[in-house]
Amino acid sequence: MKLKLLFILILSAFFIGCTDGSDDSNNYYSSNNYNNSNYNDGGVNNNTQNLNNSNNQNNTNNTSNTTTTNNTTELTPEELLELLCQDAPEEEVTYFMSADDSGSQAHAMLAKHNIQKGSCYYLMGNPPREYEFLNYYSFNYERPAAGSLGITPQMMLDNDGMYKLLVGVVSESREIEDRRSLHFVFSIDTSGSMSGEPLENVKHVLRALAPRMRVGDIVSLVEWSNTQEVLLEAHEVSGPNDLDFLNVVNNLASSGSTDLHAGLVTAYDLANQYYSAERLTRVFLVSDGGANTGITDEEIIGNAASMQEGEGIFMIGIGTSDYYNHQLMDRVTDLGRGAYVYVNDETAAYEVFSEERFLSNVDVAALGVRLEVTLPPAFIVAQFHGEEISTNPDEVRPQHLAPNDAMLYHSSLADCGSEDPASETVTFRVTWMDPLTRNPMEETISITIGELLEGPVDKLLKSNLIVNYARWIAGLEVYESEELDRATQKSRLLEELQTLYSETQDEDLSEIISLLGTCN
């Protein structure tokens, strides 16, 4: 059967691992960079920085380029593999990977909200950001000892001849009673664009956090529009549901334009002024992500967060509007070494900051987490569904990992001619720093492909379906080895979800089945 390939696979682009001698050949995948419009010569993208990017959707500068959405080609799976394997490495290759902060879940939450409202097409044409869907849904890993991280890889050979690989980097278990004291620093957008439902969602977020506060915590809160006003400054919390805090929340009102930069800088000034090594400081940016007054450059706004990271000040971004600025919120929280989430109603607010999920969204167990995967000769990464991957460690930003959490690295590997793949060894190494001492830490395991293929695949099977769900709602191909229309892809995906659900009774799968079932 012939295969109609959209740009996502054609040089989805050539493959990770081949370079063309250009200066940008090391960073092979960056899911945030999806507006690459560089010139392409003869259908081959000479900027290899964005070769295998399932989120790189707008490479349209040259309409004759076969990697654009308007051009297709016919390849058999064998021909595709041959294309991917041109110049396959003859030696081991180490890939450095970042899965994004494990708390970033906004895309999955936004998709869920819009599907429930009757819009299954809201995210079509946008980067799928599969890793945010993997972050949002639950994977119950066995927890390592306190102070360490665990590595759990799973692998299977798929029907298309690719090796599916899921690597879970798992943090320690921590009870909410054992958390460090917190300085909650709230940077609250009360501009005119936040009037109505967005501001009500802000209040839902703050009220959901109020029960998580306890004696020993302090709270600072700045509201901002085109001006800034500090409503609470290092307020000592009396306990859960502190009345002074809730009174401030209840009286928030919207007006004015949006000077996000100044509001964020004011919050960081408070965070720095009352910083203590004995206390975790977390800045909460709650906004629609707009910035129409003052300095609006994303780099400058992001740097206001990023420069504080070395002092132990971390960030979480919370979007509360259907039209929130996803790119800006993502950029700010990436540079602030934190996560971002989307809250559309009271239920979502209490879900994100429930007792079960509070620490995984707010606390930190490991700093600067980065995974290294060393593949044997002739093996390449054909697709990666995390945020960044490169053979150059300087081009992959490490991220932080919370307790009770896991970073999930999902990819497809191609065997480009190994004589005995089962005997080949894959090495997984994770590096990080202890959040209190800043001492460097690492964990390494080596395992043969044969041993991986004989091992469990429960979490891999679930992750495969979640990735396909994310891709389907973004309008991308799900079953690349066959030419199927969108409705047929959905039907098959539903069948696979229902099959796995019947075996596992997994509530996450039930939710996805319900959501997909409403889409026509």
Oligomer: single chain
| Amount of beta strand | 15-25%
Report the strand count.
Answer: 21
Quickly count the domains.
2
Biggest sheet descriptor: 7 strands, antiparallel
CATH topology of the largest domain, by name, is: Immunoglobulin-like
CATH superfamily of the largest domain: Gamma-adaptin ear (GAE) domain
Unreliable segments of 5+ consecutive residues: 1-73
Q: Which architecture of the largest domain does the CATH hierarchy give at level 2?
A: Sandwich
Helix/strand/pairing class, anyone? Answer: alpha+beta
Explain this structure.
The two termini are 27 Å apart. Helix content is 28%, strand content 24%. Helix 4 (130-136) crosses helix 13 (458-473) and helix 8 (298-306) packs parallel to helix 9 (326-335). With 520 residues, the chain is α+β, with helices and mostly antiparallel strands. Residues 1-73 have low confidence and may be disordered. The longest helix has 19 residues, at 486-504. It folds into two domains: 96-174 and 365-517, Gamma-adaptin ear (GAE) domain (Immunoglobulin-like, Sandwich), CATH 2.60.40.1230; 179-362, von Willebrand factor, type A domain (Rossmann fold), CATH 3.40.50.
List keywords for this structure.
520 residues, alpha+beta, Immunoglobulin-like, Rossmann fold, seven-stranded antiparallel sheet, six-stranded mixed sheet, 15 helices, 28% helix, disordered N terminus
Could you give a quick summary of the protein structure above?
With 520 residues, the chain is an alpha+beta fold. The protein is built from 15 helices and 21 strands.
